[in-house]
Each structure stands twice: as structure tokens, then as C-alpha cells.
Amino acid sequence: MVSLHSMKQCRMYLDEIVAAQKRGEAKGITSVCSAHPQVIKQTLMVCQSFRVPPLIEATCNQVNQFGGYTGMAPSAFVQHVRDIAEEIDCPFEKVILGGDHVGPSVWQHEPADVAMEKAKVLVRDYVLAGFTKIHLDCSMRLADDPPGSLDVEVSARRTAHLAKVAESYAGEELRSNLRYVIGTEVPVPGGATGHEEVVSVTKVEDARQTVEVTRDAFLREGLAEAWEKVIGLVVQPGVEFGDESVHPYRPEAARELSQFIKTQSLVFEAHSTDYQSPDALKELVREHFAILKVGPALTFAYREAIFALATIEDELFPASQRSNILQVLDEAMLQQPQHWKKYYSGDEASQASKRKYSLGDRIRYYWSRPEVENSLGKMMQNLGTFPLPNSLLSEHVGKKELNAREVIGHKIEDVLRDYLIACGGY
Fold first, then answer.
1. What is the CATH number of the domain that holds 388?
2. Does pTM top 0.70 for this prediction?
3. Do 8 and 95 sit in the same domain of this protein?
4. Average pLDDT in the 174-183 region?
5. Same domain, 371 and 399
6. What is the Cα–Cα distance from 292 to 174, expressed in whole angstroms?
């Protein structure tokens, strides 16, 4: 369980982000949505160097009462982060824990009453485990809902029901520390399923309707105090990525949204900001997208590091001693294709390429497989703890004087620094 003191610190920092935005300051926070231990470790370390609280979020697909694809329930994820923090002497009380897409998404193919009951358990478990920033997401149509997009009134009502669960299980002492994010225009958890030529920016009238209808739903449920804890609204600012392409942020396209949020007590939360340029990230924060979500870009950077190290290993060791990590990874993906098959279209060769290099980075679902962990461990043991040959580092990493673990850290840190600088870092 996270301490009340740490929860209060987290709440105060999130509130300060909102207050700074309302003062006209370009201040934000980076939301790292990943369960990968190396990503979490590097996030904690880099945030320490920037002297800002790290915000680590778990998504409903990763972490839920049934284990998710990580095999972790919410309490186990909290312990996972705590263990990493203790390993590197990072004060755990400074870590903000968030739940992303907390709602019925995992069970959207089930009837609404069944899916929502499971979503209520999910919310309860996140709150009791110590998550304080909760994105309540009821935007998806459930199995017995009418065809087409889900009615905003239904989404708002379900969101209020989940907020009521969170408030009731938090108890009086914990309740004041909860902060909520709402929004119906939410990218699919796990990434886009295909390339889109145009990404439509949320219309102001839709954003306004979401706020007003959700507020009314909260008030009908007797949740006036809970509504005061809603700090963020998820909208689509026009950013997304596919297998090989990135839709860059264009401030002029989202200008009306930016003007609208100035009239509200909220800030925007931007999902799928992965692979945006440093300048685009800065523009997003300046235009009141104060919470920047990133996930696949970080595990993609980790993948790049592992692929580079595998190439270096091949240069340094005979075939009989190599880990063959790339082959082991691909075999694991072929044996259990459910995490990538519906995302990667094309013929066999195209799919093989996407399994390795897609920006969607479905490889992230396979690093915890036992055979992959064993192979990776062998590679790291082969490469050792001493600096690798500079000629190979220069060729495959673009840096020198690094050992294998430092190569991994360097790749992930490069992505994180762009975000932290954009959010007001130095």
C-alpha cells in the first residue's frame, strides 16, 4: 500500500501542474505507460536527475484483477515499481501511480452488466493498491449496446458509476488524494490497428459536451466533491502513429481546442504522443496538453538497444556461444500471435518485418516470456559489464565507452529527456 504522505505529495504536484497551466505557464508531466522493468528503472533515474516526480501508469490490458498480459494485479504492479525504486535508491514516496483506460475495455465483448461489474472491481483494486491518478474510460461500446458509437450520455453515466466505486473504496483518508481524468475520444489501448491518412482533431463542441454531460452524471450520483478532483480531459489533438508513419502535431489544427480549455478548470491529456519531435512535444505542453502519455516509444527504444547489442554479440562470439535472442523472440511471437496478429497486415514477409520494426512495438508483449528472458540473460552475460569495443558501439549505437546495460539506458533516456524537457525541465 502506498503511504498517505506520498499520495498527498502526488496530489499536490498534479494540482500544481493544472494551476501552472491556468497561470499561463508551459508546465506538464510525462506519463510513462509501461510495465517493462528497464523502462520503469530508467524513468525513475531520469526523473530524479530532473528533480520531478515520476508518473508511472498501468493500463487495463497490462494490469487487472485477472493479471492482464503482464500477469500482475494492481497490487503486484505497485510492488513491482516499489522493488525497482528500492533497487536504485529512488524514494518510492515520490512516485505517482496512475491507472490508464480504467473501465470495461478488456471486457467489451461481454454484455454491459457483466463488463461493468468487472470494471468496478478493476477500479476498486487500483484504488486500494494505491493508484491516485485514474483515467476513467467508458468510451467503448459493449456487447449488447446498440450498433455504432456509444452514446455520450451512456459513457458519462458509466464513468460516474466507476467514480462512485473509487470514492467509496478509497475511504475518507485516501479520498482527497484521488485525481481523475475523463474523456471519450481515446485511442485504442495498445495502439492503432492500422495506418490512417488523416487523424481528426476533437471538435470543441464534442469536448464541451463531454465535460458538461459527465459533470451532470457525477452530480446525479451525488459526486460533487469527486467532480472537483477531475483534472484532465482526453481529446485527440491530431497525433497518432502507425507501423512506419507518425502524424505530427500541428498546433494550428488544435488551436480552437486550446482556446476552449482555457475556460475550464481542466487540462488536456494527450495519448499516443509517441515518436513526436521534441518541438512538437513542447508545443503540445504550451497548448495545454499538460499530460503527455508515452509507452511504445520507450519499449521501442529498448528494442533498438537489444537489437544493437545482439548484432555486437554476433560480432564478438562464435555461433555456438550466441544467445540468438532475435530468433528466440520471433519464435515466441509466432507461437503466441494473439498480441500482434490483428495489428500487422500484409504478406508473410511484411508481417515478419513488422514484428521486428513496427512503431507499434508489439514485441513489448513478449519480453517476459521465460525463453526470451533466458536468451536475453545469456546475451547480457556474454557481453559482460565492461565497455564494449568503441568501433562496434560507434557503428551500431552511435555512442562510445558504454557497456551493455548503459547502451539500454542510453536509448531509453534519449526518449525520456525530450519529454521531460518539453514538460518544463532544464
1. 1.10.400.20
2. yes
3. yes
4. 94
5. yes
6. 25
